[in-house]
Amino acid sequence: MTNAYFVYLLASKPNGTIYVGLTADLLRRILEHREHVVPGFTKTYKVTRLMWFEVHDTLLAARQRERQIKAWKRQWKIDLFRDSNPRWEDLYPALSAIDS
């Protein structure tokens, strides 16, 4: 069984606050953000909408990518999902439906 690691972008609303994260369990982690389980940035700024994610085979690769994206300017982060998600739609409902 291979492990997968996800780097993801969340937003508070269209053109809102953006958050970059890393997890081994994307659905669980996004649900935690949505339900404000953990105090912190995403709870304070109500950042709950999954805008984009990518899969990595190793934790090291995912950490490197997360750090790279966190260092980027806001527009570069938006550019990651601009073509695939131009309306800033929340991808979580569709992903959670697939997993059900």
Structural commentary:
By secondary structure, the chain is α+β, with helices and mostly antiparallel strands. The protein has one domain: 3-Layer(aba) Sandwich (GIY-YIG endonuclease), CATH 3.40.1440. It has a 3-stranded antiparallel beta sheet, with helices on both faces. The two termini are 21 Å apart. The mean pLDDT is 94.
Determine the mean pLDDT.
94
Q: Tally of extended strands? A: 3
Number of helices: 5
Q: Which secondary-structure class do the elements indicate?
A: alpha+beta
Overall, the morphology is: globular
Rg from C-alpha positions?
13 Å
Order of helices and strands: EEHHEHHH
Spans of at least 5 consecutive residues whose pLDDT stays below 50 are none
CATH hierarchy: architecture: 3-Layer(aba) Sandwich
- Name the CATH class: Alpha Beta
For this structure, the CATH topology is GIY-YIG endonuclease
What is the rounded distance between the termini?
Answer: 21 Å
Summary keywords:
21% strand; single chain; GIY-YIG endonuclease; 100 residues
Topology readout:
Layout: E1 5-11, E2 18-23, H1 26-34, H2 41-44, E3 49-56, H3 59-70, H4 74-82, H5 92-99
Antiparallel strand pairs: 1-2, 1-3
How would you sum up this structure in a few lines?
The chain is of the alpha+beta class and 100 residues long. It is 42% helix and 21% strand.
